[in-house]
Amino acid sequence: MPADRLFLLRHARTASNVAQTLGAGHDDPLDAVGEAQARAVAAHLAALDLSAPRVYSSSYRRARQTAEAVADALGVAPAVLDGVQEFHTGTWAGRPYAHLHTHLHEWRHEDGTPGFPGGESLGGVAARFLAALERTTGLEGTPIIVSHGGALSAALARLLRADPAQSWREGRFTHGNTAVTELLADQGQWRACRVADSSHLND
């Protein structure tokens, strides 16, 4: 029976998150706060007593480190899932996060589609994320996918049938570090039980 419950979460904090710069490399590690956040979200997910949990992450170090903490708490082995990695930010690498608000009129490809100049488009990231997701939700159990802020925003707009560009502008699916989104299957569609929940960090 295919999965009827899905968890998506952003990796824990890194130095690049603190610096608020785009385009962190593949090997950007968790900082001390991030390590504590990873333990907190791991404990939260373990307390849910999920049915046959399966933990996946992007290949980036920060996502793998977060997934390892979650998998350890659940007593399973994590797996890397190609397709859920962060945007390739192209010529915007090194620019501040704030430019995604103050310079959003420049955040376009030559054909006018939303995305990073010289990098990936909003639609392209959503498509590869959803293709990866299909490889996990067709199996029994409960998939938990550790990904990245931009990639999650792109994918959730598609999964929840929202306008992608408008959702991005409004920050509708913005996730803080280790924020959790829980989706439930409903007649062949995913619906949100909670979105970008960080309450476990307050416990």
UniProtKB/TrEMBL annotation:
Annotated organism of origin: Deinococcus phoenicis
Record-level Gene Ontology MF annotations: phosphatase activity
A Pfam match: His_Phos_1
InterPro entries: His_Pase_superF_clade-1, His_PPase_superfam, PGM_Phosphatase
Designated name of the protein: Phosphoglycerate mutase
Domain of life according to the entry: Bacteria
One GO term describing the cellular component: cytoplasm
Gene3D superfamilies cross-referenced by the UniProt entry: Phosphoglycerate mutase-like
